[in-house]
Design a protein that fits this description.
Number of strands: 10
Order of helices and strands: HHHEHEEEEHEHEHEHEEHHH
Largest sheet: 8 strands, mixed
Shape: globular
Strand content: 15-25%
Length: 328
């Protein structure tokens, strides 16, 4: 469903008055058929040159076929910081309507390094790689993000009680870096306890920083607390550029039907606008989106409504136009 929800997002961004010259590239299975690779060089080159991209969800086969395009893209561009805001939206039934936290996930190593081999038939070994360089820079990014966005606390999530060397290194570096940010509270939670605490008392958290696998799991857990993955945006940020994408997958079962909820990728697009200095346009588009949610008339099927993808985007665009005409 990537093309249809991305198209809806592009319409809203352009309606917000941002003049974008879009370069379109295909990745994944379609690219494999056309170019013989799931991650064409021209797509990587485009992102390096433009330093920013909006990416729709791409399907990765489970247990077979090509490796994850998302992982490959992050590695190719060294997009080390995966930022996933979790915020409840108006008029969406959820467990915690006041929830507002951010997950900062290390993107380049850990178990997602994909270093696996068969030791003997029936025995597979998978290596978890943790380095000082990657751990230090993701922790520093989390604290800088908290400072720049007026967040009060950063929590490290780990399993250092069991993985004393790998997660122990991450945790030690967390507290070392925290000394550079004395105005921001620092604490840590063991991953299993953190899951329980997120379900019981999520208001205690603000910014959470963690290794790759933990971040993947916790961001989905937190999305469930606000109504589902269809409301969860994400950004992958590094020195060579930034790629903005929804947290959810490609949902091939509803692809092409025009019923998918574009909220997650739209919110990712708004993160992209702020990243490139278009904060005013992002704020106006976000307000229009929140107004549509608050009104409750144009909600997609996953949220209990009947509105299709294109009409949801049109409702936001109409709200944008109405707001601008009143302020003119």
């Amino acid at each position: 469903m990537g093309p249809e929800i991305t198209s809806a997002t592009v319409r809203v961004i352009e309606a917000a008055g941002v003049d974008v010259n879009w370069e379109t590239h295909i990745l994944g299975a379609q690219a494999q058929e056309k170019y013989g690779t799931t991650l064409p060089d021209e797509a990587i080159t485009s992102i390096r040159e433009n330093r920013v991209a909006l990416k729709g969800p791409i399907m990765t086969p489970v247990g077979k076929g090509f490796t994850s395009v998302n992982v490959g893209l992050r590695k190719a561009l060294d997009l080390y910081a995966n930022v996933r805001p979790v915020r409840a939206l108006p008029n969406v039934p959820c467990r915690y309507p006041e929830l507002d936290l951010v997950i900062v996930r290390e993107n380049t190593e850990g178990l997602y390094s994909g270093i696996e081999h068969v030791v003997v038939p029936g025995v597979v070994e998978s290596l978890k790689v943790i380095t000082e360089k990657a751990s230090r820079r993701i922790v520093k990014y989390a604290f800088e993000f908290a400072r720049d966005n007026r967040r009060r606390k950063v929590t490290a999530v780990h399993k250092a009680n069991i993985m004393k060397l790998s997660d122990g290194l991450f945790l030690d570096l967390f507290y070392e870096v925290s000394k550079e940010f004395p105005d921001i509270e620092a604490d840590d939670k063991i991953i299993d306890n953190c899951c329980m605490q997120l379900v019981m008392r999520p208001e205690q958290f603000d910014v959470l920083v963690m290794e790759n696998l933990y971040g993947d799991i916790l961001s989905d857990l937190c999305a469930g607390l606000i109504g589902g993955l269809g409301l969860a945006p994400g950004a992958n940020i590094g020195e060579q550029g930034a790629v903005f994408e929804a947290v959810h997958g490609s949902a091939p079962d509803i692809a092409g039907q025009g019923i998918a909820n574009p909220t997650a990728i739209l919110m990712s697009g708004l993160m992209m606008l702020r990243h490139i200095g278009e904060a005013d346009a992002a704020a106006r588009a976000e307000k229009a989106m929140l107004d549509v949610f608050a009104e409750g008339k144009y909600l997609t099927r996953d949220l209990g409504g009947t509105t299709n993808t294109a009409d949801f985007a049109s409702a936001i665009i109409e709200r944008l136009a109405a707001t601008e005409s009143r302020s003119a």
